[in-house]
Structures are given as C-alpha cells and as structure tokens.
Specification:
The complex is a heterodimer of chains A (about 110) and B (about 110).
Chain A lengths: L9 E5 L4 E6 L7 E7 L6 E7 L4 E3 L3 E6 L4 E6 L8 E8 L5 E3 L3 E6 L1
Parallel strand pairs in A: 1-10
Antiparallel strand pairs in A: 2-7, 3-4, 3-8, 5-6, 6-7, 8-9, 8-10
Chain B lengths: L4 E3 L2 E4 L5 E6 L6 E7 L6 E7 L2 E5 L6 E5 L5 E5 L8 E8 L8 E2 L3 E5 L1
Parallel strand pairs in B: 2-11
Antiparallel strand pairs in B: 1-3, 3-8, 4-5, 4-9, 5-6, 7-8, 9-10, 9-11
The chains are: A mainly beta (about 110), B mainly beta (about 110).
Amino acid sequence: GESVGLHLPTLSVQEGDNSIINCAYSNSASDYFIWYKQESGKGPQFIIDIRSNMDKRQGQRVTVLLNKTVKHLSLQIAATQPGDSAVYFCAEVNQGGKLIFGQGTELSVKP
Amino acid sequence: DAGVTQSPTHLIKTRGQQVTLRCSPISGHKSVSWYQQVLGQGPQFIFQYYEKEERGRGNFPDRFSARQFPNYSSELNVNALLLGDSALYLCASSTADRVDTQYFGPGTRLTVL
C-alpha cells in the first residue's frame, strides 16, 4: 500500500539560544553513533560522531552526549543561528556495520 | 572538488514501470551506498557496494537491485514500481567500506503515480 510520511518532531528556538535535540536508539550493542544535518533539498551532512566508550564529545558549537544506560543521545548546539535550521538525524552503526537512522527532528531558528 | 553527484534530480513514473538512478562518487572513493528516504522519515539502507562487490543489503524486496561499475559509479534499479516507492533516493560514497566516512549526494526525488 501507499506509505504515509510521519510528522517530524519540531523544535523552535530563538537565535542565539542553545538547542538540545534528543534521540533514543534501539540496539544496546551499537558502539558508534553519528549526528547528521539535512537541509531542504540536500543530502544528510555529517556533524559529529561519538563512540560508545565515550559519554561526551565536543566540536565547534556542537556537543554530543551519550547515555548508554538509557540508550539516549543528545545534540547540543550553542548560540543557534538561522543557518542551523534543518532536520537533524541521529544514526547508529549496527553490528553489520550499517547505518540505522532515527526519525529526525526539525529545528527552526527564529531571528 | 566535486561531491557525490546523482541523476536525475527528479523523476516521475507510473506504477509498474522500471526506473534507473545513477550515482557518481567522490573521486577516489571506492564504496557506494544507497538509501531510501520517505518523506518525514530518516534514510533507510538499501545497498552497499565496495570495489564492485555487494557488501550489504537492507530489508528491501528483490525489485530493488544495484551494481557498481569499474569507475566506481553506481546504478540503482527498481522494477515494477509501487506507489510506496515514492521517496528521495540518496547515494553516499566513502573511501573504504566504513559507514562513518560517508558523504551523501543531494538525492533523486522519485514520484510514482
């Protein structure tokens, strides 16, 4: 039958504020996680990654936190800018070495 | 440097038809992966090819097939199209068979009527 797209969770923030995007993953055996940013009309773009032997990793204006106990990832964006408006996906690498993407969160930045 | 390129950008087909999508990886990249992204969802893995050999296949029916050429470009074929095949088809390339180094193309938007 015809597939129906799901309504994406949305997050609206004011320019200059910090953003926190959350993600729950399914496989406790996954040991590598990646955050992607997807702008309209473009493919996913790598933001930051983290391995399961870490609980925090920082990049330029972005921080990823990993809580293996509750299988939860978060992406923190500092001083959010209009150019950060996009859909953000977390992805886990499964035991077969393949990427499994989450549903995604749409971030909207208000000027 | 050119990134991953895909053609065509958009495509409209009717149910039952067949479609071929094309991908050119970044120069020097030997691995190509294909993903299907339905509106409002994350990409789903379809195939991975490395050095012209299939290295993985996702949970897709046999109507979906792919191949990789000696120049590392790739084609994704879908036969007997269904309405549910309407999606953005993404290609990603990497230097090795590691998914953590993948670079995505802009995708081909397929609409099945």
